[in-house]
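Entry 14. Structure prediction run on the chain below.
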Amino acid sequence: MYLPPQFDAKDPGFACELIRAHPFASLISSDDDGLPFVTHLPLHLEQRTAGAAGTGGLVLLGHCAKPNAHWRYLRARPTALVTFLGPHAYLSPRIYPDLARVPSWNYLAVHCKVRARLVENADAKDALLKKLIGDHEPAYATQWRAMAPELAEKLLAGIVGFELDVLELQCKLKLNQHRPESHAALKAAYEAGNEDQRELAQWMGRLAMGG
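Output returned:
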């Protein structure tokens, strides 16, 4: 992605935090015609041993329905892109002390270049699903474990799992860092706004912008 240096968050901890807080991702591959193919899905992030493939051993786990051709594209062309979008909000030019400004948009985003491995074994898919359940509704694990074996087997057969080793990581924190004269007004406006705006204001505070 376009990543000016003032917005480049090089600390991978920021990226990991955003992925876990906003796990609904876009997985982007090339289809058989060479066109982008996108699946929107939740992903589970885990950090494995330092010797694991990828940036710092980061791995993303997910699955898609078997009728979704994406898993076939991943098998044929394992290198793919995953994007995560965090909080985002409009930036009004009224926050500036002068009038020679234009509207913009602030946002937090993570892009991961990944290499995919398919997970097709039933037990491995079951373990993968339990990690996603743990992220979003741990209490459902009891219901899943109590499911009739033949039904669980049928459901597992209907999906293909994958592990995505993170090869490269980009994290963009676009919070108007290059316009310090606007920070106090922008942070105050976001603190009085919606959920995304309030979250951006918290990030501004963490990055020591506008107080």
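The chain is about 30% helix and 35% strand.
Filed with the rest of this week's runs.
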